[in-house]
């Protein structure tokens, strides 16, 4: 085998509730995968928009006619801040904001005008119909005749405000108080005069509201919210009036005469007209021109009852919005699970100005399933679900109707309840079928966080810019890339999923993710997705209280009985419907996004039988896909019984730190032996994933550099930083060792450039591309080492053989030197400051009078070492009659010799 040095050169909504503890009401917006933070005061949605707050109790409000506002349009200005999730909180609630405007200014009632906008002023209360008067908490639903009288045909278009007749006095929660919001958003009354500030709340805000000071998203670009008018849940939330104790007022008319509007403009949130001007937002909803034309020309119709029910039966396993591919028409099935739903609709939101949302009622199929099939629903159609629930609660301040995202949606608007109809089968894959992924035992994995590895540019999303960085990964001789979660999440790192099947809107669209996967395959990179299926997001959780508000703040149907994980509420694993959604998510990322494998986060938080069910479901359909588990502590039964193929070995990283520091006395060589061979209890090499220099868990730090009981640093920073030669030499040694030992090697982004400090999502701790683009000498040395070590591993079959044993032949406890044999290779590891030159160190081998050629040296000059560290670069070495081989032995090194036949 030739010298590898020359070839190693690198060529240059539903609201999310905060996590609550028991019945105390203490809630906290946990981080993605950090330790739980102390409880914080509950967040008031209104306080996120204004320092004032409205009365939180239900009270009668007299409603007058809305004055004409033609030509009167104001724009609310938003401070330049990086906290996009605060904007999401302000925009997410459908009954308050439309997607197009991101705000509204409501006309004052005559009584409020007389009182200067003070909602606390006295006014005459008119007689209220008994059907509209309910005591707080009373659950009396109207009969069919009463509903039809008040609602009209729910499948018909929503009437404009001029056509809609409202009772003169209705009970209204503060979410729809006109006078307050006129002062809140515009600060002016109908005539333009400033009104007095709103009065402070007289009752405490519900502790189950989402926190407003969530983790700051530092990504400068966010994917647009899609078609501007598509999330008109605000206009629809008040289009129907039932007789519950709190009735949502109509907040925005569909006619121009009722066009009192205020816009809240935020970074990453733009109107449709603005999106058409250019930039990444203009295509962020992922629609091709032909699809946009189809949307404009659509004529959606309900199928005949018999035909619809037959199609629902024929496609009984489908959930969410599913294009029926066995039809020549644009048929789309909509189905949801809602045990506490009384009635529900799919609302097709507008795709252009002047349109009104349209609703189509879902039929009760039994077993808490509701569905319908519509004709004329092309791909890209924006939609959301609207529910009437027996679990509704006026104190939740959502009004009569619950506007919800589709739990099975693949494509969403991050800032609203809007989802988009998708069809993965239409994507033109080029390399999915032709790509031949590496066998499991040959995987060499590069782990990265998409948002900080390749941030979005002015006109391209994260998924699009990532394509340009694949050559960097491939030049280092990696053959697999593992993406930290790309499921839609709240927070920063990706480990707080809002939905399980949708892609993260701030990264790009589902088709852009597929394009990224296709490009990975074209360049010879297998794709592994990191999935979080054990808990939901602690903020902006789209599944929280999905079909109504459960008892004891349990989180509703998807979370009740789940318990706490430490990062967010666990799912209701005991429910068949929840399990089905989890299984669907795992299969979705393989079948629709083209994954070659999955890594499941914290599976120790999930039931054992569910893990077995999941691995069986994947294995029965896709036996070649690798399933990797994170379980702590490492448990061999995760592979032997639960059905996973591999497991992260976190302990090896901490053992490497102990050995480097010289801890545990003479036990360090015993720890090394456990690291080099297959991990305790595992049988095959591919069953353990080694990241001796740390994964995102060890390199990441959210505490501003504080260790918080963990390392929270890049490995090079633990022992002196990138400017310390010894620290760099130790990094070279450990990466080289994981390339020649059993197990699958993995490296986290930035390690290859000796990136120092720690990783996080802020600008100072993202992937530092200056080291690569400016050819930083220290970065070049480490990248050369990584490329050479990876090539060495793939060049010798004995290093990737699942069953090839490790034979330890040399143990020098005093000098901390260890030698072992893998096939024809002799590997010598020196974990000390001692070094030997002039070939005056003898290594015990397993053969007598054999010739050896040195093929690798982690202290070679091109890697940052020195030329004299080589034992012999141009001739063979011979072992003695005592099977001893005289060699040079550099400090902190891995040297490899090939036995000559």
UniProtKB/TrEMBL annotation:
Keyword Glycosyltransferase set for record: yes
EC number per UniProt: 2.4.1.18
Keywords of the record: Glycosyltransferase, Transferase
Catalytic activity: Transfers a segment of a (1->4)-alpha-D-glucan chain to a primary hydroxy group in a similar glucan chain
Sequence segments annotated as region (Disordered): 1-312
Record domain Glycosyl hydrolase family 13 catalytic: where: 447-789
Keyword Glycosyltransferase: yes
Top-level EC class as recorded in UniProt: transferase
GO process annotations (BP): carbohydrate metabolic process
One Pfam family linked to the record: Alpha-amylase
Biased composition annotated in UniProt, kind: Pro residues: 195-204
Biased composition range(s): Low complexity: 221-245
Family assignment from sequence similarity: Belongs to the glycosyl hydrolase 13 family. GlgB subfamily.
Name assigned to this protein: 1,4-alpha-glucan branching enzyme
Organism: Toxoplasma gondii GAB2-2007-GAL-DOM2
Lineage: Eukaryota, Sar, Alveolata, Apicomplexa, Conoidasida
